[in-house]
Amino acid sequence: MTHPQSDEAVLHPETLAIRAGRETSQYREHSQSLQLTSSFTFDTAEEAAALFAGQVEGYTYSRFTNPTVSAFQQRLAALEGGERAIATSSGMAAIQAVMLTFLKTGDHVVSSRSLFGSTTNLLSGVLARFGVETTFVDPTDTAAWADAVRPTTRLFFLETPSNPLTEVADIAAIAQVAHAHDCLMVVDNCFCSPALQQPLTLGADLVVHSATKYLDGHGRVLGGAVVGADRLVEQVYLHVRTAGPTMAAFNAWVLLSGLETLYLRMERQCASAARLAAWLEAHPSVERVYYPGLPSHPQHVLAMRQQKAGGAVVSFVVKGGREAAWRVVDTVQVISRTANLGDVKSTITHPASTTHARITPEARQAAGIVEGLLRLAVGLEHPDDLQHDLAAGLG
Ligand SMILES: *Cc1c(COP(=O)(O)O)cnc(C)c1O
What we know:
One of its GO terms (molecular function) is pyridoxal phosphate binding. InterPro entries: Cys/Met-Metab_PyrdxlP-dep_enz (IPR000277), Cys_met_metab_PP (IPR054542), O-succ-hSer_sulfhydrylase (IPR006234), PyrdxlP-dep_Trfase (IPR015424), PyrdxlP-dep_Trfase_major (IPR015421), PyrdxlP-dep_Trfase_small (IPR015422). Pathway: Amino-acid biosynthesis; L-methionine biosynthesis via de novo pathway; L-homocysteine from O-succinyl-L-homoserine: step 1/1. Homotetramer. One of its GO terms (cellular component) is cytoplasm. This protein is α/β, with parallel strands linked by helices. It folds into two domains: 8-260, Aspartate Aminotransferase, domain 2; 262-394, Aspartate Aminotransferase, domain 1 (Alpha-Beta Complex), CATH 3.90.1150.10. The protein is built from 15 helices and twelve strands. The chain has helices at residues 13-19, 45-52, 67-80, 91-102, 117-129, 142-147, 171-180, 193-196, 230-243, 249-260, 262-281, 300-306, 321-331, 361-366, 383-394, and strands at 84-88, 108-112, 133-137, 153-159, 184-188, 206-210, 224-228, 286-290, 313-318, 336-337, 347-349, 373-377. The strands form two sheets. The protein has a seven-stranded mixed sheet, with helices on both faces. A five-stranded mixed sheet has the order 8-9-12-11-10. The N and C termini lie far apart (57 Å). Bound molecules: pyridoxal-5'-phosphate (PLP). Pyridoxal-5'-phosphate binds at residues 90-92, 116, 119, 159, 163, 188, 190-191, 210, 212-213, 222, 224. Pyridoxal-5'-phosphate is lined by residues 90-92, 116, 119, 159, 163, 188, 190-191, 210, 212-213, 222, 224.
């Protein structure tokens, strides 16, 4: 039910993004149907018993799974090259489900120190309360991951490229370290999406997603997912059906249409981002640009081997600190002032005073989140209009 069909292996990802996981009802509708129902009926008591015991496959209750959610899971699994996916209510729900499935009191996690803020809080706040310790390491220093391993280490957690400085970590090399110590390698593939990077094919055991970002692509709904081998995802599924961070059928229906255009969107958004990154790097008011597609990026060679393109996020430091950075943010008329990303609408944010405002100024400085730093998530508008919009505030 949640497995991609075997002949899907020969189709291109662009085709799978549209065709994989289609489920048609008895009405044979051509567009994706939306099954809004909390429960499903049974022909007999015996059938109900068999379904609940897992002896036959089918639908019982939408916390377990739902046809629309199942279609989304099958499609995403096909795109990530995984055997199976389980969808969740948000990206954080997916990350939490993985942690609660595979960790217990006394276990240790090695994680990138450059993480989405709520993921850091989940590890160093929530899980620490339950006796799970985390060591945070430089994601680009593969040796640091090996050095951090303890006898109790169970799981490695990585985001690449990182937010907002686009540091690129070597998934294959870090996965080797993880496996040498019998640890699970989990990669948050939110920034690249399967259109640019397939961590499972590089050796990761599980991919987690915030479907809220590029998978939807239009900033409409929250969603998340965990993708990987059937034997691992089955365990996450058992946790999700018990604990309940399930994806809503409506959100799955929205995300299925988002996936149809994922490859087109990513191709165009990356091309525009690459153009703007090159233009920003040559601009006299810009001190530094962070973009994996630029030869000046410290991990450019690795990024070009690991990803199909540089991505759609460009971070840059303007000369003149906070005042100059805020002037750019306050001057834009096309680009949205919001911290979200992954949308067809371009967004700009000043990390030091928003997403990273809660950490101390010293820690911010050490992490490279300087006052002049801006993060631009490039959307689908014409790149000339975006360039013109930024030029006005750069002076
Ligand atoms: C947004 C985001 C998340 C969290 O996803 P939600 O859907 O907001 O819960 C996790 N990781 C990364 C890299 C993100 O950008």
